[in-house]
Amino acid sequence: MRVLGIESSCDETAAAVVEDGRVALSDVVASQHEVHARYGGVVPELASRAHILNVVPVVQAALDRAGTTLDQIDGIAVTNAPGLVGALLVGLQTAKSLAWVTGKPLVGVHHLAGHLTAIYLEPDPPPMPHLALIVSGGHTSLVRVNGHGDLQELGATRDDAAGEAFDKGAKLLGLGYPGGAVIDKLAATGNPEAVAFPRSMTAGEHGADFSFSGLKTALLHHVRAHGVPDGQALADLCASYQAAIVEVLVRKTRRAARKHGLEHVQVCGGVAANQGLRAALRKAGEEDGFRVYIPPPARCTDNAAMIAAAGYHRLARGERDGLDLDAVPSAPL
Ligand SMILES: Nc1ncnc2c1ncn2[C@@H]1O[C@H](COP(=O)(O)OP(=O)(O)OP(=O)(O)O)[C@@H](O)[C@H]1O
Ligand SMILES: [Mg+2]
After folding, report:
1. What is the C-alpha to C-alpha distance for residues 145 and 165, in angstroms, rounded to an integer?
2. Cβ of residue 269 lying under 6 Å from some atom of ligand 1
3. pTM for this one?
């Protein structure tokens, strides 16, 4: 089954063709980072406009690169929740129009179900059930994945997401948007013990919930007191800030894997591209005896191959959505 996936929930316009939920025949992403960089975050109105400009060429490129035509597509999957409503609507309207003119089945995909499915495009994906750590720009949660579409959230952030902590930290340090990858790069040559940052909600009673807003405030206080450093001191500050995020994520993941007796752990979402987190989780897995699965960095951040793969599982279960499918800005997993 060949599924065309379309993703436009935030600041990436993406389309992909995926076969049987396993093989990406094409995977096209048009990033809007340049559009939003000067504002230090995504401007929703500008995102919607850029999606409108990009969506048709991106879909065409995905079909061309897959060596396929719309006639040969068996279904259309589109992110319809959660995200910026104006941005979601562009992808959704495109998908509905294509479904209407071709008569192909349409399914809406929850963006996080997409992130959770990215790993199934890799050889040797995790078996069910497994534990998933979702760490993205807007979400941070630990989820027990019993099967495709059968999810149980064990805990989530009570305030900022891990990606938000990276981006807001980077903004404070004048490192541009999105800042996660910049902090990651600087942190690689820094001393993670140079500055003591808080590890929030790590006591057992907080279970699998997270909080990152205090960390951001701690960085703000540090910068107010000492200014923004440069050179090695900036690398040290980034390494220390990143270590505080990574340590909390790893500690909670270890605890959840142990508590729920899960021996397979996947990490997904943009922050899963973080080299420090990838290394720390692999080390924790070796020590605790769980196996860690992480998509390649380009499949951690937003893409449409993961949406097509998640859509495949809905279509394979016989699920269909009508042309009244709506965009939902905020939707539980
Ligand atoms: N190497 C990295 N280290 C840390 N963070 C990173 C890295 N690469 C990307 N990120 C972060 O990942 C986030 C983007 O991830 P993603 O594209 O999944 O978010 P989103 O789609 O905007 O949010 P959501 O998926 O929650 O709706 C940004 O916050 C970005 O800074
Ligand atoms: Mg995302």
Report:
1. 25
2. yes
3. 0.97
pLDDT over 90 (residue 203): no
Is the CB of 179 inside a 6 Å radius of any atom of ligand 1?
yes
pLDDT over threshold 90, residue 204: no
Structure tokens given for 57? 């060429």
Q: Quick one: CA torsion of 26, 95, 44, 271, rounded to 10 degrees?
A: -40
Cα separation of 147 and 332, whole Å?
17
Domain count, the chain: 2
- Which residue among 43, 136, 281, 303 is best mutated to probe the pocket of ligand 1, counting the most ligand atoms within 8 A of its Cβ? 136
**Is 276 a domain residue?**
yes
**Region 158-171 average pLDDT:** 96
Instruction: Flag the least confident range among 33-42, 83-92, 119-128, 249-258.
Output: 33-42
Q: Which two tokens stand for residue 322?
A: 């009508």
Residue 9's nearest CA partner among 41, 51, 40, 39 is 51
Closest-lying ligand 1 atom to the alpha carbon of residue 42: 22
Looking at the fold, whether 278 and 145 belong to one and the same domain comes out as yes
Domain extent for 79: 2-116+300-316
Q: Is the domain of 166 the same as that of 257?
A: yes
pLDDT digits (tens, 9 = 90+) for 216-235: 999 999 999 999 999 999 99
The amino acid present at 222, given as its one-letter code, is: H
List the one residue out of 47, 23, 19 whose CA is nearest residue 33. Answer: 47
Write the residue with the smallest CA distance to atom 5 of ligand 1.
Answer: 180
Q: Could you report the per-residue pLDDT of 117-141, keeping only the tens digit for each?
A: 999 999 999 999 999 999 999 999 9
Whether residue 321 has its Cβ less than 6 Å from ligand 1: no
111 lines ligand 1 (CB under 6 A): yes
